[in-house]
Write a structure and sequence with these properties.
about 220 residues; about 15% strand; Nucleotide Exchange Factor Grpe, Chain A, domain 2; about 55% helix; 5 helices; 3-stranded antiparallel β-sheet; alpha+beta
């Protein structure tokens, strides 16, 4: 009887360390990729490298030249605004001054009109006083020296009052002036030159170089 020996055949398979390492890490890497794929929308896998590439660059600070240019623009705008405000202020001040001058002139004109009105009301009384002195009775002129002198002082005070207010009496002699005199009559005269005043019947007055009332005169022909 022939004995058959069974031979166990064992085949040693070579071991590749690199393959073993890759194979060993493959499950871990696959799991991380699947996790990223599950978290990303639409199944898109986002890696750290792609995230860094998509981040926007931080703005650079302006340079000195740009800062100076911006400051100059702002300074010009502020200066223009200041000039505009100054112009408005000057216009307002000028309008105020003009308004005040107008008011002062109006007030002065009103005062002058009031003064003129009062003087015109006073002139007839002065005329009556002048006429009274021109027709003094003889007995009064002879015996009323002190009393008559007092009245003459009153007449002088009234004349001084008019002069202080700018009212002056026109000359009672001299050439006839139509702008200052009103001729009552024209007659020949042997003692007065033709065209000159013979007699003043009513004194004329001027107020600040303006005729307040013309004089009534007789003129030599």
């Amino acid at each position: 009887m022939t004995e058959v020996k069974s031979t166990d055949t064992y085949t040693d398979q070579p071991t590749n360390p690199a393959a073993t390492e890759i194979n060993g890490q493959a499950p871990a890497d696959t799991g991380a990729a699947e996790a990223n794929r599950a978290d990303a929308p639409n199944g898109t896998v986002t890696t750290e490298a792609s995230t860094n590439d998509e981040m926007p660059d931080a703005p650079l600070p302006p340079s000195d030249a740009e800062t100076i240019a911006q400051l100059r623009v702002e300074l010009a705008a502020a200066q223009a605004k200041a000039d505009e405000s100054l112009d408005k202020l000057q216009r307002t001040a000028a309008e105020f001054q003009n308004s005040r001058r107008r008011q002062e002139k109006q007030l002065a004109d009103e005062i002058e009109r009031a003064s003129t009105h009062i003087v015109q009301r006073l002139l007839p009384a002065i005329d009556d006083l002048d006429l009274a002195f021109q027709n003094i009775p003889a007995e009064v002129a002879e015996h009323g020296g002190a009393w008559l002198g007092g009245l003459r002082q009153i007449q002088k005070k009234l004349a001084q009052l008019l002069e202080d207010q700018g009212v002056t009496a026109m000359p009672k002699e001299g050439p006839f002036d139509p702008s200052h005199h009103e001729a009552v009559s024209s007659e020949p005269s042997e003692t007065v030159e033709s065209g000159h005043i013979i007699q003043t019947l009513r004194t004329g007055y001027e107020y600040k170089a303006r005729v307040l009332r013309p004089a009534l005169v007789r003129v030599a022909a």
